[in-house]
Amino acid sequence: MVRALAVLLAQLVATPIVSETVETDDRRTIDLGTFECRDINRSTVLQRVCYDPTRHDLVVATGGFDARYCGVAAKTVDQLLGAPSMGQFFNRHIRREAAGRRYDCSA
Question: How far apart are CA 95 and CA 53, in angstroms?
Answer without folding.
Answer: 19
